[in-house]
Amino acid sequence: MSDPTRLWIAIDGIDMEYEAWLLLRLFFKDDYFMFYPENESISGSVLFIKVKNEDIWQCKVEYYSHLEGYDVVRNLSSTRIQPDYSSSVTVSESEINQPGGRVLKSKKILAGALIVEVLSKVTGKQLPYGSLTGVRPVKLAMGCIRDGLSKEDTIKMLVKATAMNRDKAGLLSDVANAEIPYTKTDARSIHLYVGIPFCTSKCLYCSFTSYPTGVFKPLIPDYIKALEKEIRFVGQITKNKNLTVRSVYVGGGTPTSLDSYSLNRVLEILNETFHIKNIEFTVEAGRPDTITEEKLKILKNNDITRISINPQTMNAATLKTIGRNHTPGDISNKFLMAREMGFNNINMDIIAGLPNEDEEMFEYTLERIEEMAPDSLTVHTMAVKRASRLHENINSFQLTSDNVVEAMTEAARRSAEKMGMRPYYLYRQKNILANLENTGYAKPGLECIYNINSMEEFQTIIAMGAGAISKFVSHDGKKIERTYNVKEVAQYIERLDEMLERKKAFILR
Ligand code: SF4
User: Fold this and answer.
1) Which atom of ligand 1 is nearest to the CA of 286?
2) CB 203 near ligand 1, within 6 Å
3) CA 243 to CA 239: how far, in whole Å?
4) Does pLDDT of 383 surpass 60?
5) 286 in ligand 1 pocket by Cβ < 6 Å?
6) 275 and 318 inside one domain
7) Is 229 in the same domain as 363?
8) Whose C-alpha lies nearest to ligand 1, atom 3?
9) Which end of the chain is more exposed for a tag (fewer CB within 10 A), N or C?
10) Residues of the chain above pLDDT 70, percent
């Protein structure tokens, strides 16, 4: 076991091996650190996480650059060896009971913050979100704001609990403030998601349920029939339960990659089945090469209120690299066409940190987007997803460095502000570059209610189609249960009845 090039991790008084591992891998390669082996001799650096669970909860994290021997960690307190770096926190019951104090309740987040503080000193690397590794960091800021804390006090509380930086804490506070009017727990309100799992080609970074139309064309008519069955089935039980649909989101995939007849059919069925007049109704028209005047008319005739045309980048070379068969010119032409046809709520998605892009190229994308002036902008940070072609061929691409990606997302924030938008939803993903986030910006009043609910989970989302994930929120808003439809198109068609029965049981609860 002796290996002087290792970092040994010793944890005492708290069960957080997994959470510690999630943080450690943001600082070091997986094979550099190892959890302290019982009854074995070690040699190397040691990170010691010590927790005392008494009336006042105490945690200390210490880093020793070199320790050696058998049982050395267990006997540290009886030696005079001093840590090279350390950090500690104490939290009392009364602090937790103060307004906003619930943020201090999670011992794992607090201990994680100390790990981040100590390892930042050791490595010089800063984590913008401190000890937060989850998908939905806005929930913490929301808790503070609901307790009546000001923006400044929310920032202080988040920084104290998680060791995140002040800018990110401020961003979370802004997003929570924008979301609050839309996040009411209401067991009678639901949102609908419909998945169209087809695209004209697969993007380099994609891990969504998306199959190429060229290959899957023969299955599309049967898919639409199965989807109709699912939509009508859900329509009947939600009607019997007297549930109100608040928003509809047709995504995928790229719904506009369907032929005009199939696209119209799906939207007609939705309109026939649910009372959805005058509510937010989004259709993703992500790829400009799938948009035609005829399809835009179909969207208009079916009362679509919001569409998304997604450049990802306005650089022709990058579009090729990521496997999209269209030009930057196609994006602006189709955007203009949609505007002329009266679409007054258009979102655009872009990605910071696309392979081979530098800051200048990203700024160019932002400038072109400012010229088009969409109503909302979703800024994704590049994430290397396991199921993507990018992950499979990672050695063929140059990933953008942390500081460049940070500068890109900052430039996007300024650009959104310039276009009169504010941040209104935010989430994070595994393996996201620079450990950053995806942020949705929108002009006030044009925030996507579906996106907010999908992230903050205040109301039930019933999702239909291959790979769709429904989320059922309990009456008090505290419990979220998920049901999954199978991903593969053929299996979805075959196993639909079984999925419907499962869904019915959840809706009728
Ligand atoms: S457009 Fe979206 S869903 Fe389709 S392949 Fe690209 S990333 Fe995947």
Assistant:
1) 1
2) yes
3) 6
4) yes
5) yes
6) no
7) no
8) 253
9) C
10) 99
Name the strand (E) or helix (H) holding 450: helix 449-456
Residue nearest to atom 7 of ligand 1 (CA): 206
385-427, pLDDT tens digit by residue? 988 999 999 999 888 999 999 999 999 999 999 999 999 999 9
For 225, the domain range is: 183-305+449-509
Q: Full-prediction pTM beyond 0.90?
A: yes
436 pLDDT above the threshold of 60: yes
CA angle 13, 19, 25 (to 5 degrees): 125
Beta bridge partners of 89: 59
**Joined tokens for residue 119:** 């390892």
pLDDT at 31: 87
- Number of structural domains (the chain) is 3
Quote the pLDDT of residue 3: 58
Residue 141 shares a structural domain with residue 20 = yes
Q: Which of 196, 198, 202 to mutate to test the pocket of ligand 1 (most atoms within 8 A of CB)?
A: 202
Q: What is the mean pLDDT of residues 253-272?
A: 97
| Pocket lining: 202 vs ligand 1, CB cutoff 6 Å | yes
Per residue, the 3-state secondary structure of 175-239, as one string, reads HHHHHHHHCCCCCCEEEEEEEECEECCCCCCCCCCCEEHHHHHHHHHHHHHHHHHHHHHHHHHHH
- Return the residue matching tokens 């009728």: 508
The pLDDT of residue 131 is 96
Considering the chain, what is the average pLDDT of its residues?
Answer: 94
CA 314 to ligand 1 center in whole angstroms:
16
